[in-house]
Every structure is written in C-alpha cells, then in structure tokens.
Target: ParB-like N-terminal domain-containing protein
Amino acid sequence: MQKKVLGRGLESLIPTLAANKASTDETIIAIPLDKIKSNRFQPRNKFDEVKLQELAHSIEKHGLAQPILVTASIIPGEYEIIAGERRYRASKLAGNKVIKAIVKQSADEKQRFDLALVENLQREDLDYIEEARAFKRLIEEFGHTHEQISEIVGKERSVITNALRLLSLPENVQLLITEGKISPGHGRILAGIEDKNRIRTIVERILNENLSVRAVEKIISGLKSKKKTNGQKKQEIELTNLKEEIQRKLGTKVNISGTSKKGRIEIYYYSLEDLERITKEFKFSC
Model:
C-alpha cells in the first residue's frame, strides 16, 4: 500500500521551492552555523539525543543529504531556520562550521510555523501532545480553523479536534501520554470526564492493571449509567415530595410526570363545586 503524503507538504507550501530545484546553484548556499538561529516557532519541545548523535555520525560520514530551509533574519547576515532543526543541531554535533541551506524570501511568522509543523509531522518527530499544542498555536496565534489545519497537515478534521481534546487533560496525564505510558486513545476517553479525582483514579487503574482503551470505555460507561440511575432516583423523590405538598394544599388528587426540565401536572376534581374550590385555592395563593 502506498504511503499517504502528508497534507500540502513543504513543496506545495513553498511553490518556488519545487520550481527552483533545477537551478540549485542559485538557491542553495553554504551558511556558517553561527549565523543561524533556531526557529522561534518550532513546535517540537524535545530532541532525542541518541538520534541526534546518530544523525551527526551520518552527516560526518556521508554529508548532509538535504539542505535546511531558512529565511533572512532582521539582523543583516543572519538567518532563522524554517525547516531542518534536527539537521542543524546534528551538523553542529558533527563539528561542521557551515551548512547547506535554501534561503526563502519573506517568510512570515505564520508560514514559518506551518512549515516547521508540516516537516515535523512528515518525519513523525512530534509526540501526540506536541502535535496538539502545535494545532492549538495555529488556532490561537494565527487564526487557523480546524478545517484549514486539516488541509495543511493532511489529516481529517476529526483528528485535529480529537488531538486538541488531549490538552484539556491534567498536565501529569499529558506527560504520561508523551512518555507512552498511556495511549492517546486512553487520553481522548479521559478528556470526557470533568472530575479530576475520577481521572486520577482511572489513570491509576490503567497503569496498575494495564487496561485497554475498550476496558476504560466500559468503566466510564458504567460510571455514567450509575450516575444517571442515582440522579433519576433523586429526581423521583423530589417530584413525589412536590406532588404530596400540592395535594395537601389543594385537598385533591394530583399527578406529576416528567423531568426536572419539563413535565405535566394533573389536578383531579370530582364536582363543579370541587373545581370552584380548587380554583379559589389558586386565586388565594396568587
């Protein structure tokens, strides 16, 4: 099965990049590493030191296979990375003094973040929480909609929405997802629980009992059913008490049916005189 390409990809986000591939002498230049700064909008929070060392060894032995992408900084002669943070760091570890780079003209902040996000997703470098935080930044800082993000990264809109739900979890639970101790599937289910104490209890069970996502779904479904049953009982008691109070005040049989939001009251009368008496009770009460 052919692997699906992620979203619009780097080349579609940078149309000039594909067009200029043939004229590499004009687009690729060697830049001193000390003249390059990391991307301020890098969505990745951590880098695996072992993998960086492996990449550094590869670069040292075989050279850099693909240039990084940079844009000119506000400081003359300096550049900021758009895509290629790992290659930049690994090149420094390899002891290189310069790095091959493609210089993109006039990349605004939104485009820098878009490109950095797409590259990380294409290389599967982001964990689930980093990915969700990147989506959140696109929404809050750059005004993207869920639909626009789905187009950029090539994922269904529901995937974006579900990823963002993980950020509603307590920080310690987000860390467990980052560390791979619980799955994002567990996290999405837990995100539907408002009670943080209950979340903590279920997380402990997931860790101690190695519960599957399906098992957690059953636990939460049982809790909701129990909560609903207890709520129904409480509601029935309240309606019964109200019915008895109205019957005492009106001196006749009364039925109440419905819920706490809406329902129906039936008041019985057994003669015209009885109806007049009940009507007077209402008038008196008013």
